[in-house]
C-alpha cells in the first residue's frame, strides 16, 4: 500500500483533541478520564473550568466538519477518546462511542477531507490511573489492546494513525511537574511513564502488524543553551525532552546521558528484555508539534528550581524566555521549526508532519463589524509555514502542516483563558456560536494558493 502521505508536497490540515472540544462528558456510556478528575481539584485549572461542555463538538460535530471543509485543507486531525470507546480502559468497546467516530470519519470522507486519528491525547480512563497509571506496565498493555481494537474498526477508512500525542506532556507534566492530570509530582514515576508510553506504541505496532500509516506525535523542541556554561545542562535536558522518544525509535536504545538523568530507564524490571527491540523501527512517520524553543540557563534556585520540575534529574536549571511571546507566554521563533525539521529529518529519515503549530493570541473580542481580526496569528502562521518551506528546501521530508487548532477550546490547565483557534467560540452565549476569525480565511486562501487537493464536496445543506 502507498504511504498515506505523498512525498514531495506539503498538505495542509487542522487539528483538534477530544477532551478539548467534545464535551458531553457522561453521554452514551463515556467513563471518567483523569482530566475530568483533575479539573475538580481546586486551583488545578486557572479559571476553575472543566471539559463538561468544552465546545459541544460531540453534539455539533457536523457544523465543525463544515468549518473544516471551509478551510480548503486536505486533512483533519482529531483524537479518539479512550473513555468513550472503552469506558473501563480495558475490555469491551462501547458501541455508542464507536458510532460517534464512525459518523465523523464517514462524513469527513464524504466531504473529501482525509481523517487522521490520534489514539491518546491525554484522556486516560480513570480506572487505569486508579491502578497506577502510565508508571505501570499494565497501562501500556491496555493501551495497545484499546488501540488495536479501535484500529480494527476504523482502519479501513482512516489511513493515518498516531499512537500518542506529546508523550512528554503525558509523562512529565502529568507525573513530575503535576500541572497536568493526574497531577502527581514523582520524578521517577515520570521516567517510568515515558518508557511505558513508548512501550505502548511498540506493543500497538506488534498488535496491528505491518500496516502502513502508524506514527507518533512528539512535541520536540530545539534546545538552545543561554550560555556556553549551560551546554552540558542543555544536553541533559535535550535527552529527556527529545531523545527519550527518538532514540528508541531510531536506535532501539536509550543513550548514556539519558540513563544518567533517568536511572529508571536502566532498571531491567522497568525496561525489560525485548522492549526496545519492539519500539525500534515501529513508526512509519513522525508528527512534530512545534511552538517554541527551550533556552536553559544554569539555575540560581538551589538543587531543584521550580521551572526544572518538568525535567527531573536534569539538574538545577532556569528556563529563559525571550520576546516576542504569544499570549500564553511562549517565545515566538519560527527559525526553531526550520532547525528542528532539518535535524529530525537527518536523525530519523522518517516522513515528517508538523502535526501542530499555532498561537494563543489575546483575541477574544470582536470588532464593530463582528470580526476577530487576528493579524498577529496570521503573521505567526505565515512565518512558520515559511520556515517549513525552508526546511523542505534544505532537504527535510516534510509532508504535512496542520494548524493548531480549529476552535478556541479547553486549553488544559489554562481552561478557556487562552485561545489558539482559527474559529472564535463565543462562550458568552449558551449555544456557543462559532465565528471564523481573519486567520481562518487566511488559511483557506493559503490552502488554495498552495494547490490543495481538497475538492470541497458540499454538505447536505450545500455548505
Ligand atoms: O492545546 C495543546 C494541545 O492539546 C497539545 N499541544 C499543545 C497545544 C497548545 O498548548
Name the features.
463 residues; alpha/beta; TIM Barrel; eight-stranded parallel beta barrel; two-stranded antiparallel ribbon; 38% helix; binds 5-hydroxymethyl-3,4-dihydroxypiperidine
Write the layout of secondary structure elements.
Elements: E1 11-15, H1 18-21, H2 34-39, H3 57-70, E2 75-79, H4 82-85, H5 95-110, E3 114-120, H6 126-130, H7 137-154, E4 160-165, H8 167-175, H9 187-208, E5 214-218, H10 231-250, H11 256-261, H12 275-279, E6 285-289, E7 295-298, E8 317-320, H13 334-348, E9 352-357, H14 375-393, E10 398-404, E11 423-425, E12 434-436, H15 438-449
Parallel strand pairs: 1-2, 1-10, 2-3, 3-4, 4-5, 5-6, 6-9, 9-10
Antiparallel strand pairs: 7-8, 11-12
The structure holds 5-hydroxymethyl-3,4-dihydroxypiperidine.
5-hydroxymethyl-3,4-dihydroxypiperidine binds at residues 17, 20, 166, 289, 356, 404, 411, 420.
Would you give an account of this structure?
This protein is an alpha/beta fold and 463 residues long. The protein has a single domain (11-456), classed as Glycosidases (TIM Barrel, Alpha-Beta Barrel). The chain has helices at 18-21, 34-39, 57-70, 82-85, 95-110, 126-130, 137-154, 167-175, 187-208, 231-250, 256-261, 275-279, 334-348, 375-393, 438-449, and strands at residues 11-15, 75-79, 114-120, 160-165, 214-218, 285-289, 295-298, 317-320, 352-357, 398-404, 423-425, 434-436. It is globular, with a radius of gyration of 21 Å. 5-hydroxymethyl-3,4-dihydroxypiperidine is lined by residues 17, 20, 166, 289, 356, 404, 411, 420.
